[in-house]
Amino acid sequence: MIYDGQALKVTKEADGVATLTLDLAGDSVNKFNSLTLNELAEAVDSLKQEPDVKGLIINSAKDVFVVGADITEFVNWFKLSDEELSDKLRDAHQIFSDISNLPFPTVAAINGIALGGGMELCLACDYRVMAQKAKIGLPETQLGIYPGWGGTVRLPRLIGVDNACEWICGGAQKRSEDALKDGAVDAVVPVEKVVTSARHLIQHVIDGKLDVMARREELRAPMVFSPIEKMMVFESVRGVVGAKAGKHYPAPMAAIKTMEKNVSQTIEKACETEIKGFVKVAKTPVAKSLVNLFLNDQYVKKAAGTFSKGADPVKQAAVLGAGIMGGGVAYQSASKGTPIIMKDIRSEALDLGLSEANKLFGKQVERGRLTNEKSMKALNSIVPALSYGEFEGVDLVVEAVVENVNVKKSVLAETENHIRDDAVLASNTSTISITELSKALKRPENFCGMHFFNPVHRMPLVEVIRGEKSSDEAVAKTVAYAQAMGKTPIVVNDCPGFLVNRVLFPYFAGFSLMMKEGADFQKIDKVMERFGWPMGPAYLIDVVGIDTAYHADQVMADGFPDRMTHDGKNAIDKLFEVERFGQKNEKGFYRYEQDRKGKPKKIYDPEITTLLAETVDAAGTNGELSDEDIIARMMIPLCIETVRCVEEGIVSSPAEADMGLIYGIGFPPYLGGALHYLDQMGLKAFCDLADKYSHLGKLYQPTARMREMADNNETYFQA
């Protein structure tokens, strides 16, 4: 034994080949925390002193290689002074440089996921052998930073500037076939042969078949470009990455700037360039927001795991209704391995639902994510039904019929008579009270809400709504089913609109009020899209459906009459009246035509001006609102309503509230969520801003607790 620690150990075989095995005690994965980094430094120092070592294999005793840095620990690095952070980064760089300078060949045996710092450890080795099902990557730009332990230095030299920029700026996890094609790894083998293949590589070096020193020199040297070549390469990359990243996410462009400088430098100087640029990007508000978002995501997943712990798995599911939502639920369930019965009262609806599922499976096959055989097997696990004949074996039923309280009550009561006493009923309602719907049931304790978002296969969030009589067991089983479907469930308490729609409709109310004052909806859309929303409010309402928005607006007005009612006819009311329902019938605020790929493309419709004219107040004079006014009038109601949901216990934590908005309605990730946005702005500044608009009504008036927190300089995410 050369070294024996809590995170790793180093042994040496009789043939002189040493093995460094990563195995962090007390954790299911390997990650770079301070313990692991310190032990890695000590282990490398021990290897330097060990006589007769002929090679080193770095492997993992866990199913993953290294998932990256421990963000919960390293987030504190970002709070250090520039000089202190630079010193921390240099210490880590020294460890990786020491590995790359060991006087014998080194091979990373990548058995599983190797991300971030784990990938940078692999890059510090001379060779890399990767398991077929493993994934590697440098996802740091997704946290608003870029690789800081040599990734921007070593990867371009290994796979070329174009590929390295795509890997680093995109932040994607790469499959083994792509990694081999790009030259990031030297061999791809079955997982059980990873270590053996690594030993073969070392033996080739020992036998003189591979010149490891020549390879090192090549990868350490500055890359050679003519000035024109370098300009063309990086200008091209900047254009592509800049268009994808957008102005709100500076890390990808910062990574390009760093690589542009360091590729022409010696490796020592290049590492200093990386450190200098990393310190700058780590101190940006966007990095703080995206790191906070990552931590919130971890918190939400952990909370869901706590809810579902001990729940019996759903082995057979059913969905009522084969419409867009029901078909989406059926596809998602089947694609993740849970067979599902799809029931409807019309055979043509079932045919449509199966056709949609077949199309989605077909796309998975086209992208190489599924074989034809697995696709057909999954499709066959969706069983169409016109009756309840096979429902006696169902563990959980998702009701996804029309959004009408009386229809839902009738369908739920009927279904309850055809399922086992211990089966769970869940409604996919987006706004209707779960407590109210449960009044039609004999076993209300087995009933809760399970609100999916459209399109189901893309939207990660599922709201699990606890009614007054919902049991812990029903909630646990529903959460477990959502997890099995690959979704992120958030448990919320019952109220009109629950969390996401309750917060979304004050946002829409801010939009409607500006429209009544004569504002241009196209300008509002453009301003909010530039602010970071994936689509502006008019476009979003068209996608949601004008009819859906109209009915939901009534539910919200009934539930919160003090702030969600409105006088007279607004734009949504008018469009509903003339049956402009949005994308679903190709006319709403915009008109829709199919593009070459068959997707709806929005087009301005001149008729809309005349149609909406009668909804504008006679005194409406706000056609020329400033961008700042538009942003304030849209964001203030949304943020205050999010706070109300936390204060009233509708959602358990600020983390769950923020992630619900990120995952449910596309809240701009660079802002970190509504409550993080308030923390960044400062509650005092927010309340002062809201007071400028308080004449618009209660939606614009902060709560008493918000004002108290502002006076005390409190935040929602305490340090």
Task: Give a verbal description of the structure.
With 719 residues, this protein is α/β, with parallel strands linked by helices. The chain has 3 domains: 3-283, Alpha-Beta Complex (2-enoyl-CoA Hydratase, Chain A, domain 1), CATH 3.90.226.10; 314-496, Rossmann fold, CATH 3.40.50.720; 501-649 and 651-711, N-(1-d-carboxylethyl)-l-norvaline Dehydrogenase, domain 2, CATH 1.10.1040. It has 31 helices and 20 strands. It has an 8-stranded mixed beta sheet, with helices on both faces. It has a 7-stranded mixed beta sheet with strand order 1-2-3-4-5-7-10, sandwiched between helices. A hairpin with a 5-residue loop joins β19 and β20 (600-603). α5 (151-159) packs across α6 (161-170), α10 runs antiparallel to α11 (251-262) and α23 packs across α25 (571-577). The protein is globular and about 85 Å long. The mean pLDDT is 94.
